[in-house]
Design goal:
The protein has 85 residues and is an alpha+beta fold. It is built from three helices and four strands, in the order E-H-E-H-E-E-H. It has a four-stranded mixed sheet with strand order 2-1-3-4. It is globular, with a radius of gyration of 12 Å.
């Protein structure tokens, strides 16, 4: 499992959330996705606003989605709950 972190360089909340996601990425797998450079992947996951964080498994199946700025510890706990289930 890993998180896809959809963001954009022009997005103020994304710039604010970036350091949080970097800390989360030190504990659990996070793949940062620039929506401007990866429009196809953003469309595949129906990302309508940024920041959006989606928890997926190895096959790409979505298990959880968060839109907007969230607490990093919540994401780590959620990852651990799904990964240990």
């Amino acid at each position: 499992m890993k998180y896809l972190y959809f963001s954009a360089p022009w997005c103020g909340p994304c710039r604010q959330y970036g350091p949080v996601m970097e800390r989360v990425g030190q504990t659990v797998p996070v793949q940062k996705v620039n929506v401007d450079e990866n429009q196809q992947l953003a469309m595949e996951y129906s990302v309508r606003s940024v920041p959006t964080v989606i928890l997926i498994d190895e096959s790409g199946k979505e298990f959880a989605r968060h839109v907007g700025v969230k607490d990093g510890q919540l994401l780590v706990e959620q990852y651990n709950n799904f990964n240990n289930a």
